[in-house]
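Entry 14. Structure prediction run on the chain below.
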Amino acid sequence: MKVAVLGLRGIPNVMGGIESHCQNLYPRLVRQGIDVTVIGRSPYLGKAQHTYEGVTIKPLWTFKSKFLETFLHTFVGVIYAALFIKPDIIHIHAIGPALFAPFARLLGLKVVVTHHGADYDRKKWNKFAKLVLKLGEKMGAKFSNSMIVVGNTLTKRLKHEYTVSANKLVFIPNGTLMGFADNASEEHLPDDIPIQPRNYILAVSRLVPEKGMHDLISAYEKSRTKYKLVIVGDADHDDEYAKSIRNRANENVIIAGKRVGEALASLYKYCRVFVLPSYHEGHPIVALEAISAGSNVLLSDIQPNKDIGLPFDCYFRVGDTDALAGKITHLHELNLPFDKSEFLERYNWDNIAAQTLREYKKVVEQIR
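Output returned:
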């Protein structure tokens, strides 16, 4: 079976939840005998075709733009896939790119869409962009052969909203790597960050408004904590918001930029607590990574975060910086630990790859 993949910037080690999802999923499908080509974006990958753990990475040109980049690249990518890859399935990630599901069907392709979250709820989009994203969701639900949804509550809502397409909407969550930080040690903590094990609060995020890093910094400044705050991540586009976050850095608020591999694993493993204050998530991969590394976590109480089912003390009201400041101040009083091994078995990437492969086989066997 041959699969072409669109909608992401690229893999490996490209920042973003969808990119992390694809980096974990597709090498597993290759090991199951699937021929996978990820059609990525040249600004993030360079120009040369290459492979990653058996996955063919084909960079196609696009220009960097907060809105137009994704749509231009997906349009060109669908044409490229139809003419040159000729896949059994084209797998489109996210509801913006899903706008092109009917176009792909018109070209004779079978289409799987993964719905990674209600992007039209993100603060960064204007009314027109939100309408386009909502239309992309509708086109994905109506014209795909199968739509995978990463959130359980979101799946139920979509089945209710798109009743005609309900039978092809399937919940398959994001995953995390069991024990991916087992080999990380204190020596892997980055030398350029002035921290000690268990003596810092960690966030891992793109610097965009919906991730709530401004709230986290405000809550940290209100708190009476002795720990430093380390924010790992960067922005795709160096806009005013990203600059405003960097400008709030000081001796205790450390904007650490992008980190990968053992450095990132060790940052998760040795933090005092991991915080995700986001206003919007599909299914929070960074929270699952933190839990897998053994971290205690504090998450905003948006539904996708609540869907993963943590103890009550692990949540705070989204946008409530006073509540978050209180939790940061009184970490020692919170009931944050829980049985992480049992919890994470639900989000095993091998199981998720097997579920995805079953959807592929169902789609391939369908009559066009």
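Residues 68-85 form the longest helix (18 residues).
Filed with the rest of this week's runs.
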